[in-house]
Design a protein that fits this description.
The chain is of the alpha+beta class. Helix content is about 45%, strand content about 20%. The protein is built from eight helices and six strands; from the N terminus they run H-E-E-H-E-H-E-E-H-H-H-E-H-H. The protein has helices at about 10-25, 55-65, 80-90, 115-120, 130-145, 155-170, 185-190, 195-210; strands spanning about 30-35, 40-45, 70-75, 95-100, 105-110, 175-180. The longest helix has 18 residues, at about 155-170.
Length: about 210
C-alpha cells in the first residue's frame, strides 16, 4: 500500500530533522508530531541519543481520540526500531511514523496488525525483533570479513540495513506498511557487488528469527 506524498509542512520538518541529525553535538533524537493530514504541527521534543518521549501536548492530542504522524531522526542511522514499534502499538492513534538518517534515507511505516506485532517487540519477551536484527548483523558480518580494511566502509551500512531488513520482513508478514527511500550515499552503497550476499544472508536470518 503506497503512502500519501509528504505535505509541504512534513517536507520542511524532515529538513529540520535532518539538520538536527547532522549538526547536534552530541547527537540526540528530535521528534515532530503533526496532525494526521500533515497540515499542522502539534508539538516537538528533543530527547537523548537513543530515545525521545512524547510531550504532554502530543499525549493530550492522542487522548482526545485524535490521530497523528511522527517524524524523528535516528543518530545510530538505523530504520525504525523496536521502541518505535512499541510506541505505535501502545498508541494506536499514531497513524504513521517516519525516521531519517544522516544520508537522507527515509524510513516510513504504519502498523497494520498490532495484535501480531506486539509479541515481537514487547519488552518482557526481550524483543524478538531485536534478536532478529542482532542475528542479521552476525549473519552479514560472517559472510564478509568486516575486519578487512577494504570492507571497513561497509560497517555503517550493515548496521542500518539490519533494522531495514527486519522491517522488510515485518512488511512481508503483513504486520506493517513500510517504505524505505534511500538517500544517494546509501543507495550507492547498496549497489556495491559485495553487498549482494550480505543482504541475502541478512534476509535469511530475518526469515529465521521472524517466522
Amino acid at each position: 500500500m503506497a503512502f500519501n506524498p509528504f505535505t509541504p509542512l512534513e517536507l520542511s520538518l524532515l529538513e529540520r530533522t535532518h539538520r538536527h541529525q547532522v549538526t547536534s553535538n552530541p547527537q540526540t533524537e528530535i521528534l515532530f508530531c503533526v496532525t494526521e493530514d500533515g497540515l499542522a504541527m502539534i508539538d516537538h521534543a528533543i530527547g537523548a541519543p537513543d530515545h525521545v518521549h512524547l510531550t504532554t501536548a502530543m499525549k493530550a492530542h492522542l487522548c482526545n481520540g485524535n490521530r497523528c504522524r511522527l517524524i524523528h531522526n535516528h543518530p545510530k542511522e538505523g530504520s525504525l526500531s523496536s521502541a518505535d514499534w512499541r510506541l505505535c502499538v501502545n498508541e494506536p492513534g499514531i497513524s504513521e511514523i517516519v525516521a531519517i538518517n544522516s544520508n537522507r534515507s527515509i524510513f516510513r511505516a504504519s502498523v497494520l496488525d498490532p495484535t501480531r506485532l506486539s509479541p515481537l517487540v514487547d519488552l518482557p519477551s526481550g524483543p524478538q525483533w531485536d534478536r532478529a536484527t542482532e542475528a542479521i548483523e552476525v549473519a552479514v558480518c560472517n559472510t564478509f570479513k568486516i575486519s578487512d580494511p577494504d570492507a571497513f566502509h561497509l560497517v555503517n551500512v550493515i548496521t542500518w540495513t539490519a533494522s531495514d531488513i527486519a522491517n522488510q520482513r515485518l512488511l512481508a508478514l503483513g504486520l506493517i506498511n513500510y517504505e524505505a527511500t534511500y538517500g544517494a550515499a546509501d543507495s550507492k552503497l547498496l549497489r556495491e557487488p559485495e553487498l549482494t550476499d550480505l543482504l541475502s544472508d541478512g534476509g535469511a536470518a530475518a526469515r529465521l528469527h521472524l517466522p
